[in-house]
Amino acid sequence: MMDIATIGGLGLVMAALFIGIATGGGDFAAFIDIPSLFITVVGSIAATMVSQPKEYGFKFVQIMLSTIKEPKLDFIGMIRTLVSFSEKARREGLLSLEENLEELEDPFLKKALQLVVDGTDPEVLKGMLYAEMDLFEEELGSERAVLEAAGAYAPAFGMIGTLIGLIQMLKSLNNPETLGPSMAVALITTLYGAVLANGMYLPMADKLSRRSVKILQLRRMILEGVLSIQAGENPRILEEKLKAYLPPKDRETYEREAQEATA
User: What is the mean pLDDT of residues 57-61?
Assistant: First the structure.
């Protein structure tokens, strides 16, 4: 599923630039300079690849594209699934959950329930799943670091491009007619670097950071639910416990739907 917020945000960034240029005279050609764009884009990506481990540096474009794809995080649906598994486990036993494993799309839930069915000790199960969550957080943190590095290097290479342009401009001081255009070209790289950093790289890094928080919250909820199922807790108690993980708006939706289903 596409992340509309990311796509819409990038579109608004481009719209803001377009309107800003249009209202300032509309000379779009003055803001297009291929060498400046090359210095800023390629330079920032190259520096990021140098600074990051190769398994992440070479996935730069893939990491950027991942911010456009929104993971499916259905907290309400997950509570219903866990409550139904709890009810089934109390009726038919924990081994009865094995027949539902192949239907599960969430790999974390599938692994957790498989460990329960296999009779894994609760403390061992908790340790294994927490270790997996830590590895996931570290993985997403490494991907976020790639975009943060690019966001730091883009303005730097914009400044480098500006310095290159100024050096070239100073070589032609004896020709006053070229000073204005040369200065404009020199400053374009700084503009490119600022736009790349603040309009793309850093916002995308923030997106990954917030996404990590939501995914880990869902996985903590799954872990809490699975441990409760393994302990044989009452499904109603399990439901109340898991509702604490819902944001206020989702909690209201869940309770309203539950009341409608009861009615």
Answer: 87
pLDDT grade, residue 126 (50/70/90)? very high
Residue at 173 is within a domain: yes
| DSSP per position, 55-79 | HHHTTHHHHHHHTTBPP---HHHHH
Listed residue (126, 81, 133) closest to 224, CA to CA: 126
Residue 7 in any domain: the answer is no
d(CA 21, CA 124): 60
Q: At residue 69, what are phi and psi to the nearest 5 degrees?
A: -95, 125
Q: For residues 11 and 14, give the distance between their C-alpha atoms in angstroms, rounded to a whole number.
A: 5
Partners of 69 in beta bridges = 2
Residue 205: its pLDDT value, please?
Answer: 94
> What confidence tier does 33 reach under pLDDT thresholds 50, 70, 90?
confident
Check if the beta carbon of residue 231 is closer than 8 Å to that of residue 163.
no
CB-based burial label for 51 (10 Å; 0-12, 13-18, 19+): middle
Residue-number span of the structural domain to which 120 is assigned: 33-53+72-247
Q: Calculate the CA 166 to chain-centre distance.
A: 38
Rounded to whole angstroms, the Cα distance separating 90 from 229 reads 8
Q: Please write the tens of the pLDDT for every residue from 183-202.
A: 777 788 899 999 999 999 99
The closest alpha carbon to 149, from 109, 197, 113, 185, belongs to: 197
146 token code pair: 């790639």
Helices (H), the chain: 4-23, 34-51, 54-57, 60-66, 75-92, 107-117, 122-170, 179-196, 202-231, 235-243, 248-262
Q: Is residue 141 part of a domain?
A: yes
Statement: the pTM of the whole predicted model exceeds 0.85: no
Q: Tokens 């309203």 appear where? A: 256
